[in-house]
Design brief:
The complex is a heterodimer of chains A (476) and B (442). In chain A, strand 6, helix 3 and strand 7 form a beta-alpha-beta unit. With 476 residues, chain A is of the alpha/beta class. Chain A starts with a helix and ends in a 23-residue tail after the last strand. The longest helix of chain A has 23 residues, at 238-260. Chain A has helices at 3-9, 41-46, 166-172, 222-230, 238-260, 269-279, 291-304, 321-326, 351-357, 375-388, 395-398, 404-410; strands at 67-75, 81-90, 93-98, 109-112, 117-120, 122-127, 176-181, 189-197, 215-219, 283-288, 308-313, 330-333, 362-364, 427-430, 441-446, 449-453. Chain A has one domain (3-61, 121-418): TIM Barrel. Chain A is built from twelve helices and 16 strands. Chain A is globular, with a radius of gyration of 21 Å. In chain A, strands 1, 2, 3, 4, 5, 14, 15 and 16 form an eight-stranded mixed beta sheet that branches. In chain B, 29% of the residues lie in helices and 21% in strands. Chain B has 14 helices and 16 strands. In chain B, the strands form two sheets. In chain B, strands 1, 2, 3, 4, 5, 14, 15 and 16 form an eight-stranded mixed beta sheet that branches. In chain B, strand 1 (31-38) and strand 2 (47-55) form a beta hairpin. Chain B is globular, with a radius of gyration of 23 Å. Classes of the chains: A alpha/beta (476), B alpha/beta (442). The interface between A and B is large, with 76 and 67 residues.
């Protein structure tokens, strides 16, 4: 069993899993909390005397050549489609996207895209790569700080092992160019997430997505109450989950008030994170399966003045698509996972298209080192399920589930997630229709640098762990 | 693109016609499906305009020029894909409702004092919702194995059908299951050495018991088996019941192959076999069939360092009988992934340096090849005459993403495709409440 399923499905106390995370707001520009507590939003943390970015990104785009892909079908990631399209990449950015008439300057490398498809790189809002890396040995189990139900003070980037071979699989087989690494779901408040560029590096800082906002992972339901109930401490029930959360938020509101008033406060890493959520600069990613629990979380967010950017897993989101749309909350979903635990019992394969149809921001996510390699396939299954029930959703619209929507959830939609001039040249050339089982990525560019080419073994990343092992450099 | 797009309008019309036809013959068990894109499942290419005839619950003929006998219900497939039902090659279908709800999870019996003697047949629940969901995905038969006991042998699995009735077992005690490698070590006492010794001792004890039942007492202390376990192991030693072995590391695979030097009649079927491609020649020479979870491509532990999606293709190219299973990620609820995974192996043919399967091989790997691995290719897994009448008509290429059956027959009986998931979907097509609460929408 893979780690993901082990953590999710194993009927044991060890089962705290991977699937946690929270949602991000939909517009990076409007990330303010919607209620009164947000009134003094950004000024609050602005007065803090501490460095809010002590582990700054050192990511630098690798060199790319001016490149044109011609003749491909382009899904732009925002719902647009161009047949026989042309895309130009220059200096790490998308320079232009157009039809066959778009002129390719003389010095560009021209890639023939006839019969192929071009999309923005896939963005996975829910991954534990690096925190629960391969090999999944106990020494690598770094995703859940299971010593207190609320650990907003931990940062997942401090657990990420950049040598996890899963990153390269997600790039080469999955066309994933950016991903959010979340703490697990053992805790009500699992800690901060980090958003990465899917570019190998010696250091985590070398992968950090420049200027991406932080997220906070929260978890509803079975996992926290099971883990802490088994330790004989709160929470042991869903009402206990809410009580611990509310008490913690009340402290955070009070802490933030002191900050806003300019009063001297002791450094409190947990409260700093929560104050950041209340001010809207840290995005809330909330693992939550059941419809009734999501609705209660919405009220809790209003009680204390934060906004849930994304509900993750949200297996019952189809029951409350209207509420999610009204509250401007994204739902990050699997196509068809079900039955591994009680709160995953009411899954339907139409969840993704039904939430989409209700008008909510819909995302296909993985929470798994295997499915991150085929999120396009998961989206395709969901799309076909929707069409079978009579929906008319175009292929290019469905690509928003992998493109601009996850970018919005992570607050990086101004710079990536779609193929628009000026955005990062995070691009995948697929060797066929990306909603077919018979298709794989052929080339992947990140910030305009070609980092995977199916036809060039030299452009196939091999992590330190894999070097000198059986199968080193294999096609995988 | 071409394979993705179905002529939706035409197909819808056809389906309407087909369901009108079948509505008049709900209980009919003799059926001919004609004008199909017909897949036999034996590795041969699809036949356009093919016909399959089912009578008395069995296939009587299938092919291009098959006459439709008088008195059978005729279904015009209008060009739709028609295949044998999918055989889930290694699964826990029927043993689990909700994994994390212990009372509904009969995968393993880690606290039982019995091991090889355990028989999953009475644990199977044909009314469980995973049976219906997997049936609606086109899976009609499954090889079901227990996952573990307190000892190295997990117990006896069964071959089952996923029909909408209470009679689920096609063949009870159809296999014995054991894990070597890391999982086996943890049961045997902490090392691979202990696993191999315990394996040998238990089989010797069983053999001695078969010759002289009174001898078990002197063996069983060290060998840690009960009378019922010995009974089951005798059938394994004699090759009457295949021994399914979970094993992944290349060196472990070779050592498992060597077990036959002590017990030459063992019928081995290897499961997992993640590093099998490294010893493909030996597997082929030993004529040992394998069941792989084919998209496993990460070094999830130190016995899978060589993991690659090309494993299945390389093994098949070496002459190994390769079945495609779904067990490294889900083994009870999502057998529908079987077709997706098979389709992914076809995709590999277009990647330089990778090895995949042809479409025809890939379909055989989820139908006739697993049937043969469990010794039942004469009964299930293809549309050849004499096999059970497990037939599926699809809305698209069955290996393509999201393709679904439009009609399913098991033992010639037309099956309900209604699932609890479908009922939930229908209730929430409009999520907001109407004149009455949702509880009144049914």
């Amino acid at each position: 069993m893979t780690k993901g399923h082990y953590f999710l499905a194993a009927a044991s106390l060890a089962l705290v899993g991977c699937s946690t995370s929270g949602g991000a707001e939909t517009q990076s520009a409007s990330r303010k909390a919607p209620t009164s507590a947000a009134n003094s939003s950004s000024s609050a943390t602005a007065k803090a005397a501490f460095n809010k970015d002590p582990y700054p990104s050192t990511y630098k785009a690798y060199a790319g050549q001016p490149t044109a892909v011609r003749g491909a079908t382009i899904f732009d990631g925002e719902g647009g489609r161009i047949d026989n399209g042309t895309i130009l990449l220059l200096n790490g950015k998308v320079e232009a996207v157009g039809g066959a008439e778009l002129v390719v300057p003389a010095n560009y490398v021209v890639v023939d895209g006839q019969g192929k498809f071009v999309t923005p790189g896939i963005i996975d809002v829910h991954s534990h790569l690096g925190d629960y890396p391969s090999p999944g040995v106990e020494a690598h189990s770094d995703g859940n700080e299971m010593t207190s139900p609320t650990t907003p003070e931990v940062w997942s980037e401090h657990s990420v092992w950049p040598q996890d071979p899963g990153f390269s699989r997600a790039l080469a087989n999955g066309g994933v160019t950016a991903l959010q690494i979340l703490p697990g779901s053992a805790n009500l408040m699992g800690g901060r997430s980090v958003t990465l560029k899917n570019v190998p590096s010696r250091t985590v800082q070398g992968m950090k997505f420049p200027n991406a906002p932080y997220g906070l992972k929260m978890a509803c339901g079975e996992n926290p109450k099971r883990v802490y109930g088994a330790k004989g401490r709160a929470p042991s029930t869903r009402m206990g989950n809410f009580a611990v959360n509310r008490q913690t938020w009340a402290r955070a509101v009070s802490y933030k008030k002191k900050l806003d008033e300019g009063k001297a406060v002791e450094r409190d890493l947990a409260m700093e994170t929560l104050a950041g959520v209340l001010s809207g600069e840290i995005l809330m990613h909330n693992h939550c399966y059941r419809a009734d629990e999501m609705a209660q979380v919405v009220d809790m967010s209003k009680e204390f003045g934060y906004h849930v950017s994304t509900f993750h897993h949200a297996v019952e989101a189809y029951k409350i698509g209207d509420i999610l749309a009204r509250e401007n909350i994204c739902a990050a979903l699997w196509a068809d996972w079900w039955g591994f635990k009680m709160e995953g019992y009411d899954s339907v394969p139409e969840n993704v298209p039904m939430v989409h149809q209700a008008g909510a921001c819909t995302i296909v996510h993985s929470d798994d080192e295997n499915q991150i390699q085929r999120l396009n396939q998961e989206a395709a299954k969901a799309l076909r399920a929707g069409r079978r029930m009579g929906m008319t959703i175009s292929d290019e619209t469905a690509w928003t589930w992998l493109g601009i929507n996850p970018a919005k959830a992570l607050g990086i939609d101004k710079v990536t997630g779609s193929l628009k001039a000026g955005k990062m040249a995070d691009v995948v050339l697929w060797n066929g229709h990306p909603f077919s089982a018979y298709t794989r990525p052929e080339k992947v560019w990140v910030d305009g640098a070609m980092l995977y080419d199916a036809n060039n073994p030299k452009l196939r990343p091999v992590s330190d762990f894999e070097l000198g092992q059986p199968g080193e450099g294999d096609v995988k | 693109m071409s394979r993705m797009m179905v002529k939706t309008a035409a197909l819808t019309a056809v389906l309407a016609m087909v369901s009108a036809l079948s509505a008049t013959s709900v209980s009919a068990q003799d059926v001919a499906i004609r004008n199909a894109k017909l897949v036999i499942g034996d590795g041969s290419a699809p036949i356009d305009g093919g016909t399959v005839v089912v009578r008395g619950g069995k296939i009587v003929a299938a092919g291009a020029h098959v006459a439709v006998p008088a008195g059978v219900t005729v279904v015009n497939a209008a060009g739709a894909w028609v295949t044998p039902g999918i055989v889930a090659a290694f699964s826990r279908v029927g043993l689990v409702e909700v994994d994390a709800v212990d009372g509904t999870n009969d995968r393993g019996a880690s606290r039982s004092r019995f091991s090889a003697g355990l028989d999953i047949s009475p644990a199977l629940n044909p009314m469980g919702s995973p049976v219906a969901v997997n049936r609606a995905a086109g899976v009609t038969r499954a090889i079901v194995a227990p996952s573990e006991s307190s000892n190295i042998f997990a117990g006896q699995g069964a071959v089952v059908d996923l029909g909408d009735d209470m009679d689920m077992v096609t063949r009870p005690r159809a296999l014995q299951f054991i894990s070597f490698g890391e999982a086996g070590s943890s049961k045997a006492g902490g090392s691979r050495a202990a696993t191999f010794l315990l394996f040998r001792e238990q089989l010797l004890a069983a053999r001695s018991y078969a010759r002289n039942p009174a001898s078990l007492a002197e063996w069983s202390n060290g060998a840690m088996i009960q009378r019922a376990d010995a009974d089951a192991l005798v059938a394994v030693i004699d090759g009457k019941v295949p021994l399914f072995v979970r094993v992944d590391r290349a060196s472990d695979i070779l050592n498992v192959l060597k077990l036959r030097s002590d017990f030459p009649a063992l019928k081995l079927v290897l499961v997992g076999v993640t590093e099998g491609w490294l010893v493909a020649r030996e597997l082929a020479a030993g004529k040992v069939p394998v069941i792989v979870s084919p998209l496993t491509d990460l070094p999830g532990n130190f016995e899978r360092l060589g993991a690659t999606q090309s494993n299945a293709g390389r093994l098949a190219a070496a002459g190994v009988a390769v079945s495609v299973g779904v067990f490294d990620d889900d083994d009870a609820h999502k057998m529908g992934y079987t077709t997706q995974y098979a389709g992914n192996l076809v995709a590999l043919n277009r990647i330089a340096g990778a090895s995949g399967l042809s479409w025809d091989q890939a379909f055989a790997a989820i139908s006739s090849i697993p049937a043969k691995a469990v010794g039942m290719d004469g009964q299930i897994g293809s549309l050849q005459a004499g096999r059970v009448g497990d037939v599926v008509m699809w809305d698209n290429d069955p290996l393509e993403l999201g393709s679904r059956p439009t009609m399913v027959w098991i033992d010639g009986k037309k099956q309900s495709l209604v699932t609890r998931q479908g009922r939930l979907r229908d209730r929430y097509i409009t999520p907001s409440e109407g004149a009455l609460p949702k509880a009144y929408v049914h």
